Amino acid sequence: MTGEGERVSGTTTMIQATMIRRAGRAALWAGLCAATLLTSGCAGWVRDNLTQSPTPWRRVQPTALPVTLPENRDFPIVAARLRDTGTVYKSYIVALGNPTVLPGENRLSVDVQTLPDSLFGALVQPPRVFPVPLYTMETLTETTKREFPAMRIKVADAARRNHYGDYDYVTAQDAENTCVLAWQLITDHKRMLPERIEAVRLEYRVCGVGSNVRSLLAPFDGLTLTLPETVLEALEPGGL
Amino acid sequence: MTRSALLLLGAAALALPIALPPAAWAQANGGGRALAPGVKVEVAPAPGSGSAPAAGKVDETALRYYARIGDVERLEAEIARLRALDPGWEPPKDLFAPQATTPGVDESPFWSLVSAGKVAEARAAVAEQRRKTPSWQPSAKLLQELDVAEGAGRIRQASDTKRWQEVIDAAAAQPEAVACNRLDNAWRLAEAYAELKQADRAFDTYKTIVTSCPKAKERRDTIFKASRYLSPERLRELTALGATSNPATGEDYSTVRTAEAELETGRLLERLGNARPGTLSESDRMRVEGIVREKQDADGAVALGWYFQKQKKYAEAQSWFAQANGWTPSDKAAEGLVLAYNGLGEKARAREAAAPWKGRSGRVDQALKAVDPPRGAGGTGGGRAVPQGPSPLDQALARHDFAGCLSIIRSTIASSGPTSALMQQRGWCLLELKRPSEAEAAFVEAQALAAREPAAKEPAGGSRKPPSAGVPAAATRAQENAYGQAIARLTTGDVAGLTRDLPRANLTPAQKAEIRAALIATEANRALEDKRYNDALRLLDARRELEPEPRNLGILRGWALYNLMRYDEAYRQFKTIDDRLSTEESREGLSTAWKTIYHDW
What's phi and psi for B136, nearest 5 deg? Predict the structure, then answer.
């Protein structure tokens, strides 16, 4: 017994000693790790948190776009790009074919603003990637001058309507070509937008040969948003 | 007097059609304290106030404070102000001697806060002191300084958010906030008038600055600021006034006079760039030519070259491009030279002019296509061996008519089908028309067509022999297509993708280095936007190992240094650029760095 007891006692002592050694080693490792982290800069900080900055544009396949455009021989999808701004915004540019010889890309831009999914996200948000209102007369003039230099510009008197409600547009014309710039902000949560999506901004800029404004706007009139959550179409005026 | 106590008086301007003379403004800067717009009361020194001046004496509190902290510039301004108030007053002889602590409250901490721009904190500290010592009254000068600082803050805020009327109201409420020693606010006031289309008042404000603020540099900067809003005639008047009115000893006003000439040159060169044939008068053109020659301005010479090239005056164009290339060799000048020689029908000399840049510059390679058009791109129908002179496509390229280029290529393709060369040229023209996505598609298509075309179709320039040492290799057609794709991707902002694909891309070493330099420049720009200033410098340094730093990146470097609070280096950087060619950007950088270094806001 005694011997056993001594053995037990000796084993216990050995176990205790081993535990003490392990604890010592753990403390040593912890100390080393902390020192390494501190000296390697891991414990440093940067003044501005870049998680709120826009990422560089990256290309995506047209099938990955959150929008479907009706088939149009004049304005096929040439390329598509995506970038994120923080966790809140996703911006897409769809470059479309341009049958004219005018400068500037035909394109559809889509900005999707989602609601943050955490308290921290709600507190730290990136600056809005599009202004509201989308245009003032001054910014519109500036934009149309840049987009359609040396063309006659006319702001449409009346809004048009696509699947997601009313939108406004300008037309620009020269002797041979016509261009349109249309813009729309979708914020209707009552019917159209799912809870997670705060707003969707659309901008469509297209130039074509001839003077048929309606045919230029046809892709914008017929586009369908295909976000992961269903975006419902607007009710027709007077509809149920 | 180094600084007059000028007040660019919004209130006066509102009440009177013309601004008050400087002397009157100086009077307005007396011991009065503005409580509300247009209302002023004299603050009598309170009994028991340790630092309030005795009756009949000027308040030297601020003067002694500036002397104690060694702020010589403000000290001089304060001496001038006090002299304006009381011409018989002389600065105390013991100004720099340590002062015995006067009974009452020491105002130094409040002055320190005001001096550091912490006006709200200063107000709070004064209130706290008054709570602790109810019998104490802050000195009139301190209260005035607080009012002025608050007024200045209101002006800046309103101006930053473009609330122009509020700028004017704030200046009217606190006229002292728009004095020479707060010149930035005075400029903001003038800008507010200009933005509200009150051109006369804007002019009056600028006029008051250039006739009253004594420093030549301030007058010169004012003229540059005013150039955004005033007509050339008024600017001329302003310059004349700035160069002659109320001169201060030791100031060299010739720099004020040259400001107008510099602005005029910039304006004329800009007009030159946009001018259609005949829109620039003979006298203006000759004036530009004279200035460009005098300053040996290579960019100006290139602009003149294009002006003549557009008018098909190839001999004059060639002369200016050659001049530019002589002063500062660049691919821009070489491109023009190639096209001008081509216009003159001197193809051999065109090729000679292109030689130093061939395979190293996209723009020169493209210009060479006008000299040796790719096969099938002639637009005159295939198969004819008889020389036809410059083809319509050559002519369109020589005119920089890229819309015409697209039309010609389209009709050529419609009549005789696409070729690799045609599609490649279409890609370059689309890039010039800022349609990079379509350009990339065109280069991809050109690549696919090249793979199907017989090897004999490789252009003469597309030598496949290995490059000899020191001589850049001419690009093959495949490499040119890959290069075009890379440029297009760069233009669409596909930086990450391009960086990933670059090592495997089929490009000449020179093309690869050029794309890499462009990628680094894009990243440096992004770093600056993200406020990663050290990163921006790191990238710019890396880029400089590949290529000399162009002007725009030099400016970017200046701002990165400035934002890292390396003000002296930033100043030197802006100064180097500005000395070479003064532009709005370089002047802005220079002025901002200077003001920061000398606390001259």
Answer: -80, 140
Q: Which residue of B has its CA nearest to A101?
A: B403
Q: Are residues A55 and A40 in the same domain?
A: no
Smallest Cβ distance to B407: which of A48, A95, A101?
Answer: A101
Q: Do B522 and B553 contact (CB within 8 A), yes or no?
A: no
Q: Are residues A205 and A114 in the same domain?
A: yes
> Which residues in chain B touch residue A98, judged by CB atoms under 8 angstroms apart?
435, 438
Respond yes or no on whether ipTM tops 0.90. no
What tokens appear for A39 in the block?
């000296």
Q: Which residue reads 């013991």 in tokens?
A: B94
Verify whether the Cβ–Cβ distance A57 to B532 is below 8 Å: no
pLDDT at A29: 75
- Top pLDDT among B241 and A240 is at B241
Do B168 and B139 touch, CB atoms closer than 8 A?
A: no
Residues of A with CB under 8 A from a CB of B: 46-48, 50, 53, 56-59, 78-79, 81, 95, 97-98, 101-105
Q: How many domains does chain A have?
A: 2
Suggest the residue from B402, B409, B437 to mutate for an interface test with chain A (most A CBs closer than 10 A). B437
| pLDDT recorded at residue A112 | 96
Give the CATH number of domain B508-601; options: 1.25.40.10, 3.30.70.1130, 1.10.10.10, 1.20.120.1760: 1.25.40.10
Q: Is B547 exposed, middle or buried (0-12, 13-18, 19+ CB in 10 A)?
A: middle
Give the chain B residue whose CA is nearest to the CA of A147: B434
Is A188 a domain residue?
A: yes
**Average pLDDT per block of 10 residues along chain B, 601 residues long:** 39 33 36 30 34 55 73 75 77 68 69 79 85 82 85 86 89 87 89 90 93 89 87 87 87 83 73 63 80 80 84 88 87 88 87 83 79 56 43 81 92 89 93 95 92 59 38 73 94 91 90 92 91 93 89 94 94 88 85 83 58
B216-226 vs B199-212: helix axis angle to the nearest 10?
170
Which of B438, B440, B532 minimises the CB distance to A97? B438
Residue A215 counted as domain residue: yes
Do A17 and A99 belong to one domain? no
